[in-house]
Amino acid sequence: MMTQGEMEAAVCEGVSRFEQEYMGRGPKEVRCFLIDDMLIVRLQGVLTAAEQHLVQTVSPEKGRDLLKDVRAQLIEIARPALESLIEKITGSKTISLHHDISTVYGEELIIFSLASMPQVRPSLNKPR
After folding, report:
1. Among candidates 95, 115, 106, which has minimal Cα distance to 19?
2. Fewer Cβ neighbours under 10 Å: the N or C end of the chain?
3. Is 39 helix (H, G, I), strand (E, B) or coil?
C-alpha cells in the first residue's frame, strides 16, 4: 500500500510516460492531486511545436477549437489505457474522465472520478 504522496507521484510518472508515448511529447511539468474519490492531473507545457504554430497562425477561435477537438478525440480513444493505468495505481475503477486543454498556456487537466476512495497508508512525515 502506498502513501498518498507515493500514489500521486506514480500517477504523475504514468501519465507523463503515457503523454510521451501516445502524444509524442511529454509535459514539462505534471502534478497530481488525490482528493477523496477524485484524481486531478495537471500537465503544463504539453503543446507540440506544430500545435503552437496552428493556434498562432489560424484565426484564434478556429485554431483553438480545432486543437481542443483533436486532443479530446485522442483522449477519448486512449481512455481505456488511461483508466487502466489509474486503476492499477489506485486500486479503484474510474467512473468518469473529464479533460480540457488551454491553448493559451499549454496546460491540460485530466480529472478522474473514482468508484471509491483509494486506500492509502499514513505518511511517516508528520506535518509541522
Report:
1. 106
2. C
3. strand
- DSSP state string for 50-69: HHHHHHHHS-HHHHHHHHHH
| Rounded Cα–Cα distance for residues 83 and 97 (Å) | 8
How far the first Cα of the chain sits from its last, in Å, is: 24
Residue with the three cell numbers 473514482 = 114
pLDDT tens for the chain, 128 residues: list them. Answer: 899 999 999 999 999 999 999 888 889 999 999 999 999 999 999 998 888 888 888 787 888 899 999 999 999 999 999 999 999 999 999 999 999 999 989 999 999 999 999 999 988 776 54
Calpha distance 23→45 (Å, rounded): 13
